[in-house]
Write a structure and sequence with these properties.
single chain; about 350 residues; alpha/beta; Arc Repressor Mutant, subunit A; four-stranded mixed beta sheet; 10 strands
């Protein structure tokens, strides 16, 4: 178990962020993990398998060496985002700017990590990692190149939906913080996490203590962290904790226009009926437009019409406005999906 000790100052500096780089790195662990862990993300894994041929084997070999199914992940691969919503390019720039000396230390630690280096191919992975250690840049160049190539194929096509889930979780946590303070916000963060006596206790395979030291605490919802909690204490800035967001089970659910029912489509129109079904997760105009394969201006018209009818609600999250179904929208969609009584 890890014990994260927080001060009153740390609690005034609790913040949230979504991180495309964290998702990208954590997804590599999902691909390498056992069947039970992979099952939740099976639809995504199947889609990735169809696209994996676009990646170079040497890039995948490097990434598999860096991110093992279990155990230590080098801190430099998961930098703390500077703001609530960051881009993948922002995260890659942070990795590219990491101190090569610190990166080399982390890679050497990974190469010798008994738990992380379990399984076949250990000698090959260790040789690859040691080769990076001895480079002047500690391998930062090839690592960022491999991550960029992998992200384009594995995460970017699905990022709008993942991002919607993460922001939905952040909105829920912030509401809990406003209603009941840090205690309520932390109360159901993750089954492996408890908070009491200004200490965050996280179930792990090892025992450890760390002090946030007044630098604050960064909470990062991460779809691919499931079922683990990823903790980063050695990097600059805030200590970070990555946990599974609420509603993760609905991430890969697909809504099809025919599921909305022909009667509802006859009233709303096929596009608006399909859009209502799509918004089981709060999304911005651009996210919904990506999902629906329509232009943002066109989507905006449909969103405003559904909102005016009381079927959608909107809320601001940073610079974005997120749209989600109202209770009326849920009831209407549910009723349209039921078969008429015999």
């Amino acid at each position: 178990m890890i014990h994260l000790h927080v001060t009153a100052t740390d609690l005034t500096r609790v913040r949230f962020a979504a991180s495309p780089v964290t998702e990208t790195v954590a997804s590599l662990r999902t691909l390498a993990a056992g069947r039970q862990r992979r099952q939740l993300h099976r639809p995504w894994i199947d889609r990735f398998a169809e696209r994996a041929g676009r990646l170079r084997k040497r890039d995948l070999d490097l990434l598999w060496a860096l991110v093992r199914p279990e155990g230590y992940i080098p801190d430099f691969l998961m930098p703390s985002p500077d703001r609530r919503s960051s881009t993948f390019a922002d995260g890659i720039a942070q990795i590219a700017g990491a101190d090569p000396e610190i990166v080399a230390q982390e890679l050497a630690h990974l190469a010798a990590h008994r738990f992380a280096q379990q399984g076949p191919g250990r000698e090959g992975r260790q040789a690859l990692l040691q080769a990076l250690v001895h480079r002047p840049d500690a391998g930062i160049g090839p690592v960022t190149e491999a991550l960029e190539a992998y992200h384009r194929v594995a995460i970017a096509p699905d990022w709008s939906r993942i991002d919607a889930l993460l922001n939905d979780d952040i909105a829920y946590r912030l509401d809990a913080l406003a209603d009941g303070g840090v205690d309520r916000m932390m109360s159901n963060l993750h089954p492996s996490v408890t908070f009491a006596d200004q200490t965050l206790r996280i179930v792990k395979y090892y025992e450890g203590h760390a002090d946030c030291g007044g630098r604050g605490l960064l909470l990062v919802p991460c779809a691919f962290a499931w079922p683990d909690v990823l903790v980063r204490t050695a990097q600059p800035g805030s200590t970070s904790v990555s946990y599974s967001p609420r509603g993760l089970g609905r991430l890969w659910e697909e809504q099809h226009p025919e599921q909305t029912g022909s009667a509802l489509a006859g009233v709303l129109g096929q596009t608006r009926a399909a859009l209502l079904a799509q918004l089981d997760l709060p999304m911005s105009t651009s996210q919904a437009a990506t999902q629906m394969a329509l232009s943002a201006p066109t989507l905006s018209v449909h969103l405003q019409a559904l909102r005016a009818a009381g079927l959608l609600a909107s809320r601001r999250a940073g610079r974005q406005v997120l749209y989600s179904r109202t209770e009326l929208g849920d009831r209407l969609l549910s009723g349209a999906g039921r078969q008429p009584d015999a």
